[in-house]
Amino acid sequence: MLRLRMDLAARVIDQFQDSARTKLAAAQALAAPIAQAAGVMAGSLRAGGKILACGNGGSAADAQHFAAELLNRFEVERPGLAAVALTTDSSTLTSIANDYAFEQVFSKQVTALGRSGDILLAISTSGNSRNVIAAVRAAHDCGMNVVALIGAGGGAMAAALLDGDVAVCVPASRTARVQEVHVLVLHCLCDGIDCLLLGVE
Question: What pTM was estimated for this model as a whole?
Answer without folding.
Answer: 0.95
